[in-house]
Amino acid sequence: MPLVVPGIQSSGGDQINEWSSKLMGKKLGDNHDEVTFAKQDLPQEHRVLQPDSMSTMDHRPDRLNVHVDEQGTVKNVRYG
User: How many separate domains does the chain show?
Assistant: First the structure.
């Protein structure tokens, strides 16, 4: 099993776990409900990435990347 050092091989730590539990399987919208998370409650430094969308490759450890599928459902969350 490979050694994973938080902050080096992985990023986000407890924060990424917290955001994953809040966002995974939900859609992003204007208000909170059972299936939607309000966009205004995302961190200031974030970007929403749709399938096949272009994005810069700059690494910004404080930026939350929210990956959504074709229907807008969150499928992955990571920092960078």
Answer: 1
